[in-house]
Amino acid sequence: MDSKVLPIIEVKDLDIGYNNIPVMRNLNFSVNKGDIFIFMGVSGCGKSTLLKSLIGLKQPDKGKVLYSGKSFWDEDEPGQKNIMRRFGVLYQSGALWSSLTVGENVALPLQLYTKLSVQQIQEIVSLKLSLVGMEEYADSLPSGISGGMRKRAALARAIALDPDIIFFDEPSAGLDPINARKLDDLILDLRDSLGATIVIVTHELASIFAIGNNSVFLDAETKTMIATGSPKDLLANSQDEKVIQFLTRAKKQELKQ
Amino acid sequence: MLAIKRLVFNEIIMLEKLDFDYSIPKTLIVKLEGDWQISAGLLPITEITAQLTSHPDIRQINLNVSEELQWDSGLIAFLFKLIRECEQKKIQVDHKNLPPGAQKLLEIALKVHEKNILPQQPRESFFEKTGDKVLQIYQSLCLILNFLGDITVSFSRTIKGKVYFRWDDFMLIVKRCGVDTLLLVCLINLLVGMILAFVGSIQLKIFGAQIYIADIVGIAMVRVLAAVMTGIIVSGRIGASFAAELGMMESSEEIDALKTLGVSPVEFLVIPRVIALVIMMPILTIYADLMGILGGFIISVGMLGLNPIEYLNHTQVAVQLSFVWIGLIHSIVFGVIIAVSGCLRGINCQRNAAGVGMATTSAVVTGITGIVIATAIITFICQILGV
Ligand SMILES: Nc1ncnc2c1ncn2[C@@H]1O[C@H](COP(=O)(O)OP(=O)(O)OP(=O)(O)O)[C@@H](O)[C@H]1O
Ligand SMILES: [Mg+2]
Fold first, then answer.
1. How far is B11 from chain A (nearest CA, A)?
2. What residue spans define the domains of chain A?
3. What is the DSSP letter of A94?
């Protein structure tokens, strides 16, 4: 089979939960190469949990996550690590390693997985930091910069190894509208320039429509996905009240009118 | 007397605030009047439910208000509870005649209530709870063993040089063990030596054998006490700080970030800490040995009037080299225990601020318990080996 036609991520019959209490059931969707794929849903519905089982942090209760056809949770440890090396992850809180400076944070993945000299690593670090506009802060500790800067620095770390897939957990949470917009543009640029596939958890409507070209909608009440497709299509064509409600910020009563 | 007065008082409030009307069949018309603000006190809903029990045919409650009703959250709280109670009894409550603001608040409160349906945790019986606790102990033993297994594997990988070892981290921890604890270790052990000398002298004085204080202090400190005291101090300072650090890293997703990079947190964070403590504990213990002996010396020579040369000679004869080794073995084992329990609790920390606190406390408890158990085991083994 030609690997180009295979979706880069494929989720099949996935059930996730904590301690036998299900959070989401029966998830089925696929992410194609170059997509900006959005997980949306109300707070607490399980978006972060789903993300965790995609990036190898949480074993699903049932079902498969396939990366270019390889089932992640059926691989052995080296196999999983090989798949994970293709990821970059931007965590909800940034999660910069607090004992390292911003520059060291970006350098660490390079030290671990490349054979570059210290000098070469330094050059790549300053490139990645300037991509996110943080070059001057290479020597600051994470505790000494603002929340928005931390997010950008974490993004520089996430793209340190030129990943195929970048996962974002609520990238614009806690950012002002201008910086949120800048981050969106940056995400688009990264997709175009690195050819990366991007998976984003977010409930910022502005970002959803600005950058998303595919999505799933997770519903907390039925504990499963109730819609999938491009956010704009969903807005135009979806029959589901909850989806429309979410995408238009409308109240139930307003929809009925 | 007081109770009666109170009853009357309540009765009056009730009469002032509530008025019941049974003119329509199956319907209770409640008229609310007077002061319903929080400052006037909350009325129990039994005032109304009592009416319902005495008229079991009622299926509907209509709420009416008088013109000069004064209300705030006090009224809403009362009605909120009433409506929820009536829902269970399948009685309709009509609140259309309330002031608009009060209606709105009630609707909001009731709506939130109907949306968040948490999964009901079934109530557990005594036996289930006991079983659960036993299972928890079993699970936490599994957790510890798993972790030890992880550490062993990671350690061998580190030694083979397959792992990226962070020397900076390691040196930082080594420094911290020294700077943070050395002074405290010296002080505590000096005092323990002094206490031992004092207590020993009380008995030995009777036999005129005070010089044997040197033996008691020397042997006790060098064989176990110095290592145990040092272990307890290090557990409180360093073990707790390991748990807090790793706990913070866990709750800010830093450990997740390591895992997705394909780096084992055990290799990256735990191994440097374990090695650092295994190196530093014996060094601290040697200081502690010397300070303990010094403490005994100060008391014996300074207060009990023993000959200093004789005291030192006695110590030298009593403290065999093998005792020093036994003390050092203790300290190495303690180093492993403290580092492992600190890191274990940190890595398994719950993701909130309280979680970090709990991790720290339980690291110290685990550490000290481990130290005492290990001391007992080592002492037992020494007994069997006859050393
Ligand atoms: N460690 C955990 N143990 C048990 N239950 C958890 C845990 N973490 C999350 N949950 C539960 O799983 C559900 C989904 O949580 P999750 O964090 O995935 O939500 P989310 O969609 O990311 O929400 P938000 O948008 O607020 O970040 C929640 O109901 C939460 O109570
Ligand atoms: Mg989340």
1. 44
2. 3-86+164-175+182-256, 96-162
3. B
* Per-residue pLDDT reduced to its tens digit, A144-180: 888 888 888 898 898 888 888 999 998 887 778 888 8
pLDDT for res B71: 84
**ipTM for the whole complex:** 0.80
pLDDT grade for A251, boundaries at 50, 70 and 90: low
CA distance A94 to chain B (A): 8
**What's the CA gap between B257 and B253, in Å, rounded?**
6
The answer to whether B262 contacts A89, with C-beta atoms less than 8 Å apart, is no
Taking the complete model, does pTM exceed 0.90, yes or no?
A: no
Which residues of chain B neighbour A96 with C-beta distances below 8 Å? 254, 257
Residues B82, B187, single domain; the answer is no
Q: Is B72 left (phi over 0), alpha (psi -120 to 50) or beta?
A: beta
CA of A16 to the centre of ligand 2 (A): 14
List own/partner pairs for B123-130 with CB under 8 A and 24 or more apart.
none
* Residue with CA at minimum distance from ligand 1 atom 28: A44
Domain that holds residue B339: 154-385
Rounded to an integer, the average pLDDT of B82-109 is 85
Q: B218 — phi, psi (to 5°)?
A: -60, -55
Nearest to B262 among A21, A85, A97 (CB): A85
Q: Mutation target for A interface from B245, B254, B273, B356: give the one with most A CBs within 10 A.
A: B254
Residue A169 CA to ligand 2 center (angstroms) comes to: 7
Task: Single out the residue of A162, A54, A148 nearest to residue B256, CA to CA.
Answer: A54
Can you read off the two tokens belonging to residue B319? Answer: 């403290």
Compute the mean pLDDT over every residue in chain B, rounded to the nearest whole number. Answer: 87
User: For residues A126 and B330, which has the higher predicted lDDT (pLDDT)?
Assistant: B330
CA gap A25, A14 in Å, rounded: 6
Q: Are residues B65 and B173 in the same domain?
A: no
| Closest CA relative to residue B167, chosen from B65, B22, B46, B276 | B276
Residue in A14, A15, A20, A23 to alter for ligand 1 test, most ligand atoms within 8 A of Cβ = A23
Based on the fold, state whether residues B262 and B326 are members of the same structural domain: yes
Report whether residue A53 contacts ligand 1, using a CB cutoff of 6 Å: no
At the topology level, CATH places domain A3-86+164-175+182-256 in Rossmann fold (3.40.50)
